[in-house]
Specification:
α5 runs parallel beside α6. This protein is elongated. The termini are far apart. The N terminus and C terminus are likely disordered. The chain has a four-stranded mixed β-sheet. Strands 5-6 form a two-stranded antiparallel ribbon. α5 links the parallel β1 and β2. The chain is α+β, with helices and mostly antiparallel strands. It is built from six helices and six strands; from the N terminus they run ααααβαβββαββ.
């Protein structure tokens, strides 16, 4: 055996010396990839998870409040305008709201419930206050004329174009119902049973007073 077998060649020596450096580089690359993934996941939760945490008891924006909390996405956008309702001498209900308000979220089911009873005879016009144009003055046919700077706010306009109700905050269903009873000359709540809708077919209905059960 020659003495050459006892020594490493230059190439073998270089490969062994370089091996630890390659292992350190691989570890550094792995750490960098993991760090990027952790930052990406943290960003996803901070940005993407916020809407999912929103609810009816907070002031966070999470979408159309009438669709989310009242099950009635058809309320927004409104199907008509206040000017058109006044021109047709049809009562209208204005609801001033924003989508990132706890009170508006909690009030939206009341609006939907009212539409269930009066939707055929009253124009329901929810107004997002952020969409009200900024002007020095408004006419009585414009929603901005009635807005008092608070949400929610409920305004009932009767057949003559006059204000029958202007209430701020989460107005009880009964308060608006009593106003509509006066607008339509119905018996007051204290003298009549609750209203219900009588369905003639799937396309039409009318307001009627639920008949009291006959005594035997």
């Amino acid at each position: 055996m020659t003495s050459a077998s006892k020594y490493l060649t230059t190439g073998e020596l270089s490969s062994q010396v370089g091996a630890p450096k390659q292992r350190r580089s691989w570890r550094q690359q792995t750490f960098a990839v993991l760090l990027v993934l952790m930052v990406a996941i943290a960003g996803f939760w901070s940005v993407g998870a916020s809407p999912a945490l929103a609810g009816i008891d907070d002031d966070r924006f999470d979408g159309n409040i009438f669709a989310l909390y009242a099950g009635n996405g058809a309320l927004v956008p409104p199907r008509t305008t206040l000017a058109d309702s006044i021109q047709r001498h049809k009562p209208a209900l204005l609801v001033f709201f924003v989508d990132d308000s706890k009170d508006c979220k909690q009030f939206s089911p009341v609006v939907s419930q009212l539409q269930g009873f009066y939707g055929k005879v009253v124009d329901f016009i929810p107004i997002n206050v952020d969409a009200i144009p900024i002007k020095s003055s408004y006419s009585p046919t414009e929603p901005g004329y009635y807005y008092a700077g608070i949400v929610p706010q409920t305004v009932v306009i009767n057949q003559e174009g006059k204000v029958a109700l202007n209430a701020k905050g989460k107005v009880p269903f009964e308060a608006v119902d009593d106003t509509f009873r006066e607008v339509f000359n119905l018996l007051p709540r204290s003298e009549s049973v609750p209203l219900r809708r009588r369905m003639f077919n799937e396309f039409s209905s009318e307001l009627t007073e639920q008949a009291a059960p006959k005594s035997k």
